[in-house]
Amino acid sequence: MELSTILFAIAGLAALSYVAGRQRAILVGARDAAPKFHSLPGYHGAYLAFWCVLPLLLVFAAWVVLEPSFLRASVLAALPSEFATASGDELSLTYNQVRNFVEGSSVAQNVSADIAAAADVYTAALDNSRLLLAWLLGGMAVLLFAIAWRRIAPAFRARNLVEKAIEYLFIAASLVAILTTIGIFVSVLFEAIRFFQQVSVFDFLFGLDWSPQTAIREDQVGSSGAFGAVPLFGGTLLISGIAMLVAAPVGLMAAIYLSEYASPRLRNYAKPMLEILAGIPTVVYGYFAALTVGPLLRGVGDSLNLPVSSESALGVGLVMGIMIIPFVSSLSDDVINAVPQSLRDGSYGLGATQSETIRQVVLPAALPGIVGALLLAISRAIGETMIVVMAAGLSANLTVNPLDSVTTVTVQIVTLLTGDQEFDSAKTLSAFALGLVLFLVTLLLNVIALNVVRRYREQYE
Predict the structure, then answer these.
(1) Among the three residues 156, 185, 205, which one is the final residue of a domain in this structure?
(2) Are residues 144 and 234 in the same domain?
(3) Is the pLDDT of residue 220 over 50?
(4) By C-alpha distance, which of 149, 155, 147, 140 is closest to 45?
(5) Domain that holds residue 25
(6) Residues 128, 231: one domain?
């Protein structure tokens, strides 16, 4: 039995429990002698669904976590005695071979008889585990349904319990998001600390040479490598700066037009079409930058006798700026529309024109929100991966010339972690140090943007 089948059965039980609980509350309430219910029938149905489903989901999640250990122990116990002296890595390799054989990833002729026998044990243990889980959940469902069914009565406060359960669900969802962020940061931090044990923090943050190619032998030339990340930071800021030079004015002017000049009918069509740019996959932008914009700029540069690289920062920045226009325009449009109409009416009453009202009243009032939108767009540009991976260069050049080829932090992270890597060398660990810096920078920008927007909302709410 597949886990998805069990989940579908739990979902069906939730729907059935809701309908049954609601109908029972309606029937009980329809009796002539029945007092008035404390909660609506829908709350009784939701209570019955929550009471039956949530414990089942907790047991299901625990079972999914513990099942691999049970299967591994069953398979290893069925192996011949000569495997008793094998190391942990060898046992892990054998267990993976058994799983691959069961899942059809291994050809039967290439598997030994011991592996085939262990595969039969794995299959039987898996079937028994799923069957036991199904019976356990079924018994729990019947018991929980019976208990909750008897509680449905006029005086039962189902609404309070349902609302409290929903509150706890919201808290759990928030904790998942927060703990995930903390987990990502901690996992990157530990690997970055290992890197900084081999390379000085000062050399990494202020070094001007980036050449993370380490040698295999100690006597080989270039065994130390160079991990100065300033060229990577410079390339990232150069491309992000070009992107913002495109996105900020275009997005802001589009927001002003849509909110102040466009008719409601045009706005209803134009704004969704503009926001389509945000839904285009970034890999498509990467193709566009690599195959169209880059060669086009190089051709224009050749006609003007200018040396333009086919992987120039200008081409990547232009495409990235087009990509983040919706971030600026949509958020700016929202904050401009949030400016009270009374401010505009007061400006018109004093004799100001529409353009003067926009320049001297609307934009200053919406400035905190616009700044927040720009900061969010900058953080999006700094963290962009696919466009720069496909269209930016790999050479770490420290330059401010947008016609030259530069590389970025995200390009180097992808390059360093591509293929088979050893996670004990400074070359591979440097990717985590770069990721840590990128994480902290984007986090700082997001915090600043949220604080600015919060200050704006407190002013007009």
Answers:
(1) 156
(2) no
(3) no
(4) 149
(5) 3-156
(6) no
Overall domain count for the chain: 2
Any domain includes 171: no
Let me know if residue 213 belongs to a domain.
no
Given a cut of 50, whether residue 215 has pLDDT beyond it is: no
Q: Are 388 and 232 in contact (CB under 8 A)?
A: no
Whether residue 166 lies inside any domain: the answer is no
| CB-CB contact of 260 with 358 (8 Å) | yes
Boundary (domain end) residue, out of 156, 188, 217? 156
Asked whether residue 380 falls in the same domain as residue 237, the answer is yes
Q: Which of 43-52, 91-100, 141-150 has the lowest mean pLDDT?
A: 91-100
* Per-residue pLDDT tens over the stretch 404-428: 888 888 888 888 887 666 667 788 8
